[in-house]
Amino acid sequence: MLDLLIVGGGPAGLATAIHAVHAGLDVAVAEPRPTPVDKACGEGLMPGAVRTLAELGIALPGHPLRGIRYLDAEDDTRHAEADFRHGHGRGVRRTDLHAALARRAAELGVPVHPVKVDPATVRQDARRVTAAGLTARYLAAADGLHSPVRRHLGLDLPDPRPPRYGLRRHFAVAPWTDHVEVHWSARAEAYVTPLGPELLGVAILTGRRAPFDVQLAGFPSLADRLPPHASSAVRGAGPLRQRVRGRVVGRVLLVGDAAGYIDALTGEGVSLALAGAAQLVRCVRGDRPLDYEHAWRRASRRHRLLTDTLVRLRAHPRLAHLVVPTAVRLPSLFTGLVNGLA
Questions:
Q1: Which residue segment(s) compose the domain that 308 sits in?
Q2: Helix (H, G, I), strand (E, B) or coil at 195
Q3: Is residue 256 part of a domain?
């Protein structure tokens, strides 16, 4: 019998598997799709995530990131910039990150079973969980933003707020900065992430349903700096906010986006997935699954507070318009918030 069966072989699931091997656990992953899988993603890693991945033995390609820059979409000469105090972040393609995690898991001997787990077939008792013909002491659901396992367990909560969505494309152009740029307009944000010597990722977060090119037109200064043709297709995700009753039901634990999601606004999805994976493995190793809920909340508290505050500001265009001017007027506060998340 396995110690831990992980449903989902994306970055969160593979990071959980790698942490489990380091902790001496017998682990396997159930994932029917071949690696790597591309999804909508801002593709910028905070310094903390880069350090954690290095500790797990994962070397990343991509572009070093020195900090974060907030810009006013109407006047991009008005901007606030904060450098990371402790190391660089990394701009890395989602596919490259996924491939690097998959290689490390394979090096450590993690078996990946090409099976799709029907959540209706997941069974558990006081000692074990079974799914897809595999038996383990615990099951980690790392099956994404719209987690079928979470939904089957009745852990989804309704969200009364208007939904937000993400769209991402790539452009073959030399980066003009070594910061992640966040362009704020009245109703959306555009994230520009350097990914290589001749590659930028542009992700737009918005509550408006419209094609990428229509959304990009709301950022004229940014659009003027990009080539007329993108180098990748549009990838979309949403609704982003996923409210969750809890992250533990018996011997099933949720990790990564499946554990709940507020918004991509602060760009910490991978960092939170890595932190959650470490906490989940610690609780499984100690045979204390109920400790995981508190551990997850503690590890994500700062992120949840800041992200929720910014999303609430975003819901009011007049208040959202004040975000960049406030960061400009209070640079020490802006730098402190950026490094608190980094």
A1: 2-161+239-341
A2: strand
A3: yes
